[in-house]
UniProtKB/TrEMBL annotation:
Protein name: 1,3-beta-glucan synthase
Compartment list: Membrane
Species this chain originates from: Saccharomyces bayanus
Reactions catalysed according to its record: [(1->3)-beta-D-glucosyl](n) + UDP-alpha-D-glucose = [(1->3)-beta-D-glucosyl](n+1) + UDP + H(+)
Source species, domain of life: Eukaryota
Region feature Disordered, mapped onto this chain: 38-59
TM annotation in the entry: 232-253, 277-299, 319-339, 351-375, 409-429, 462-483, 489-510
Amino acid sequence: IGGDTANYKRWYFAAQLDMDDEVGFRNMKLGKLSRKARKAKKKNKKAMQDSTPEDAEETLNQIEGDNSLEAADFRWKSKMNQLSPFEMTRQIALFLLCWGEANQVRFTPECLCFIYKCASDYLDSPQCQQRPDPLPEGDFLNRIITPLYCFIRNQVYQIVDGRYVKSERDHNKTVGYDDVNQLFWYPEGIAKIVMGDGTRLFDLPAEERYSKLGDITWDDVFFKTYKETRSWLHLVTNFNRIWIMHISVYWMYSAYNAPTFYTHNYQQLVNNQPLAAYRWATAALGGTVACVIQIAATLCEWSFVPRKWAGAQHLSRRFWFLCIILGINLGPIIFVFAYDKDTVYSAAAHVVGAVMFFVAVATVVFFSVMPLGGLFTSYMKKSTRSYVASQTFTASFAPLHGLDRWMSYLVWVTVFAAKFSESYFFLILSLRDPMRILSTTSMRCTGEYWWGAKICKIQPKIVLGLMIATDFILFFLDTYLWYIVVNTVFSVGKSFYLGISILTPWRNIFTRLPKRIYSKILATTDMEIKYKPKILISQIWNAIIISMYREHLLAIDHVQKLLYHQVPSEIEGKRTLRAPTFFVSQDDNNFETEFFPRDSEAERRISFFAQSLSTPIPEPLPVDNMPTFTVLTPHYAERILLSLREIIRE
């Protein structure tokens, strides 16, 4: 329960239950660290890093009053290290008991963690220890799980003629598993849990909450945490950065190469050029385009995410900051266009236009790399605990370190450098002359009966619009093309680095497999009794082959050819192990023995196993030192309870 990667621990800190255990939700301002707490956090950070198990007590006294996540994690680990094996086992047993009768609540893991927390507090309290009689059988299932199950069921089914029939309610009006689960992500959500008489559950002492779980009216607690409307506007919010790095850059490229649109009295034969200020300012409107996209994405998010959900971000601040940046990008450009004549050169306008172009570039780059939620808010700051839940449950990505991190940066820099270079020279410049000609073409035509000459007069503009739209689509496709090309090149390079290149002789992978099993799987340095390498290798290899035989992936004939066999030794009375010819046959083209069906699952597994061992992997550990993990959430259609007959058959 207390492991670093345990879901219960992650939820416990995300929902700030450590703060509730210390001071209580009713006595604190949720989601914020006081100024005093922030100072204490900085002061105690080094003390926690330098702490050893011997001076843990002294460090705990030093960080008292520090409510930061780092201090809470240190206190948690100190507490877990002091638990006896009996207490650890009891924690796991209690969780398994809760999980075993949780029914559909298993699909809401953080809700189950909340129930476990209440049950654990009650179990450790004098109220439970001094109770003369146990709770009635089925109390947990009937009083706690059944109301939750009924709520979830009633969202999908309704009673018609005494039978449950699936209701026709749309998904965007159904409070589903995610909505139920996300209530427990934030302390503000947990604080909204009230009983029938209006009393907040967390206003009660921790040991009394379990007994009151049955009094909660869940219909008044749960609500939709996301408005799942069927709208194309989701594309604006979810892909805002994709739009910015394509539309804004496309605008800059096209505007710079379309001088006919902002040149005074342009003539094709003369090819007179616009004022430099106008060319800079027109291209600089790309920054304004980026701001408009961000504002549109924010307004759409306002309509999708209910404000009463604790995980909803503060959009007002972001909206007004975006409006300010829009004004910074647009205001000086309006000055250039509105107050500067397009026939007279102005040094001031030239400087303003050039400066605003680089401001626009900075705006586009910033909005392209910064997620929408990280704009002008504390959403991505590690110093606050307001959004720990979102970082824990929706943004929990394995961090890259060292060379891998720099390689990731290099991949994306290469992708966009190649994409923007190629798109400019092959897409935009090829559109320059058509824009120059079609934008100034004057059609001399009679038209047709219905519309006269109205349509044919603007035929060049229609063709130009279609060409620009087609180029814009190709501008998007270029990104995908270069992503595939660069990703392939880097993947091949990474394969060479890891030793799994397709150019590596295939026979080497199998001929060296026994040695790699010994060196990369077996922790031989920690063995008390030393065995010959061949004995240890044979145990691993034979276990793999026999397991595939039990799964009906190999026939008995194949198994006999692949196993290590005991044979009489040259020394009388001794026996030795004979390695299968499979390992050496891969190095000799004269062997025609079939060791497994061609293109079968067995061939795929053995090849994958051999290839994996040819890559750099960490040093092997003894079984006692291996990290353990357990996954208890079943698939939706997976059966949990089996009859004795089915167990025997399995």
